[in-house]
Amino acid sequence: MRHLTIVVTFVVALLCIAGCSGNVGLSGRVSFPDGSPLTVGEVYFETDTFLAHGSIGKDGRYVLGSLGEKDGLPPGTYRVSIVGAMEGESRETARYLIDEKYKDGRTSGLTCTVSGSTTFDITVTKPEVKKK
Predict the structure, then answer these.
(1) pTM for the whole structure
(2) Fewer CB in a 10 Å sphere around the end CB: N or C, the chain?
(3) What is the domain partition of the chain in residue ranges?
(4) What is the DSSP string of 5-46?
């Protein structure tokens, strides 16, 4: 009986810890080096087992959500990517507003360590103009 009490106490404690750790808020702004905002796209924060994202607004600001909109993410270190930063009427005429390296968290060069409520501003570069 004593073993059962210890096991139940341990399980309850684990559930309490898991429920109490919770997500923390993360927001920021995406802009170019001159300070002008990136006004379209989605910011993604990911690990090998977790993904959170937020839409970029007209002022360049975003707020992250994982299970729901703007509910934050668990503490940890994340790779950061930006997708959908394009303008144009169709895929054929669309053009990227930022360097394509930002489309993948493994190539973007952006990481963020989250330990509490965090602001993470991102500066992006425009794509290189290809010479003909």
Answers:
(1) 0.78
(2) C
(3) 23-123
(4) HHHHHHHHHHHHHHHHH--B-EEEEEE-TTSPBP-S-EEEEE
